[in-house]
Amino acid sequence: MEFATFAARAERLAAEPGDIGTTLAVADLLAAAGGGGNAADASDDAEPALRAGDDLPTVTRFLLGRVFPAHDTRTLDIGPALCPEAIARAAGPNVTAADVEDRLAEAGEIGAVAAGFDFGGQRGLAAFGEGRDALTVAEVDGALRELAAASGDGSESRKLDALFGLFNRCDPAEAKFLARLVLGEMRIGVGEGTVRDAVAETFLSESVGDAGDGEESEPDAGPAESDDAEPTLCAGDEAVAAVERALQVTNDYGRVAALARDEGLAGLRAEGLVVGRPVQAMLAQAGTATDAVEAFGEVAVETKFDGARVQVHYVPGDGGEADDESEADDPEVDGGTDREALGPRLYSRNMDDVTDALPEIAERVADRVDVPVILDGEVVAVDEGGDPLPFQEVLRRFPRKHDVDRMREEVSLRLHAFDCLHADGADLHDEPLRVRHDRLVDAAPDAAATLDLASDVEAVEAAEAAALDAGHEGVMLKDPDAPYTPGDRGREWLKRKPDVETLDAVVVGAEWGEGRRAELFGTFLLGVRAGADAADGGTGGGDEFATVGKVATGLTDEALADLTERLEPHVVSEDGTELSIRPAVVLEVGYEEIQTSPTYSSGYALRFPRFVGVREDKSVADADTLERVARLAGDEA
Ligand code: AMP
């Protein structure tokens, strides 16, 4: 497919107002990229998802602003300066990177800026002799993959050359989407759910036979469209669920699209986990003991460890020792679970490979685990007696590339595995938690966290009290019969922590927002009363304020507009995007916890602060004090 075709379709998608219309338009594009084909079209020797010259996986990923699938640790790693520089170079000798950046500051997004230049003047350059050929989707993909592989000395300039080479061959419409693609944001109103539905629509819709094996599909499979009637989607819930499930296990929209086309429902359902290909972590919602007992009857109670999420992938081999050098095979290509030995690989919650930062965990897994596994767990810092230390201690180790050995001496780590997604050749994610937990205990007895079953609120609360007494954060309350659903924040897992009180803090600074919100304040610096006046419970007239954090979460456009209007009259000075603000407005803020931190003048920082509301009823003199912050942080004031 020509990149110009992709760009034109992307432009049309951006203008499509309705959800169903968008899904149908994406389906149409996928059908065009996939040759309108299905299993019947694939040549006999073509492996699913791997046909040479197949644009479908690439186009599917491009739609989501991706070159690599989410689980892939490769990144383009294009810094904010590189793209403007490449655009400037392609735009000719009269344009500098600073010009491009100026336009970017005005337009707020790179696509519009890239589309504003004429790159034609450079096309005839001898060094880019092929410049007159139309750029294809496959070429863009290939060039960006090559660019991602550039490392070491001179890699920045090679990346710049590669990007320049691409822009140089773009017309404005192509340049717009190339620029957005390299920065990972397409801005065409197509989210993951839309692509999921469109894959089902294109390759599995009932109109083309929901037979379960894809064999009966018509070659001209395409989305249902009609000129007069309201557009409707044909793919059934079952088809969408099969696509969703395959996405959960692969994290690769490109692969799933090709699988749906080539192997239909059966192929999607057969897609398994691959040791070495991380999946998204299953997440939890907040809930109480009563919620859990009412929803699950019997409740699986586990300690909520306060550390960093880690997914462990390991296939023991000869000797089974940790193999720090081993790289997972390209998981984009490898579809099977049978695989060669793989030294333990550890992935963070964002699916980044953090093995090198946590060598003792990898060594311990290699030492103690004898079967191929995918484990889910939490790495916590512990003191000499093995008692848990606060979360900040783990952060010192994680993720870290330098000084690993020294930090290993300073901060001891322990893995608490609480789930097992794969053991000894069997995928377990569709099994109930109680089965997975038994397999976890078999596969990794040393690391397995305890799971207790409780059937009444008192028993759950007693377990919570015991976990808190032991220095943990709280408990996780889980449905023992629920499968593991990667990436899902459902009600099957409930997290229960002691309630935290909100804080009433004073706005003492702000930062301008970005992009669409560039005209509004976007981030607010928070302070609490710290002067002698605060201690006296005085009027606030002589108060000093100590900063405790910045809040930018939980604010709607409306709230931002309101706060901007309220605060503008109190701006004292402006420095770049940062504003200093006279204390006048009190915000109620929630947070997960308060940590000691050198970042703010109070010596404390709110972790995950979120805006709750404006305390209209409170003046600055009624705002919270540093003393209360210290108390909430657990320090005696
Ligand atoms: P939160 O970060 O407060 O949303 O809580 C959810 C996080 O708690 C998970 O992402 C895990 O990193 C962590 N966690 C600690 N212990 C457990 C456990 N037993 N089961 C699941 N998640 C846990």
Keywords for this entry:
alpha+beta; globular; binds adenosine monophosphate; DNA ligase i, domain 1; seven-stranded antiparallel beta sheet; 637 residues; 4 domains; five-stranded mixed beta sheet; D-amino Acid Aminotransferase, Chain A, domain 1; 21 helices
**Fraction of residues in helix:** 25-40%
The CATH architecture designation of the largest domain is 2-Layer Sandwich
Radius of gyration equals 27 Å
Strand composition percent = 15-25%
- Per DSSP, the total helix count is 21
**How would a textbook summarize the main sheet?**
7 strands, antiparallel
If you had to describe this structure to a student in words, what would you say it looks like?
The chain has 637 residues and is of the alpha+beta class. It has four domains: 3-64 and 189-270, no CATH class; 82-182, DNA ligase i, domain 1; 283-496, DNA ligase/mRNA capping enzyme (D-amino Acid Aminotransferase, Chain A, domain 1), CATH 3.30.470; 502-632, Beta Barrel (OB fold (Dihydrolipoamide Acetyltransferase, E2P)), CATH 2.40.50.140. It is built from 21 helices and 19 strands. Strands 11, 12, 13, 14, 15, 16 and 19 form a seven-stranded antiparallel beta sheet that branches. A five-stranded mixed beta sheet has the order 1-10-9-2-8. A hairpin with a 2-residue loop joins strand 6 (412-423) and strand 7. Helix 1 (3-15) runs antiparallel to helix 2, helix 3 packs across helix 12 and helix 7 packs antiparallel against helix 8. Mean pLDDT is 86; it is low at 36-50, 207-226, 319-337 and 536-541. It binds adenosine monophosphate (AMP). The site of adenosine monophosphate has 13 residues, from strand 1 and strand 2. Residues 281, 283-284, 302-305, 309, 378, 418, 449, 476, 495 line the site of adenosine monophosphate.
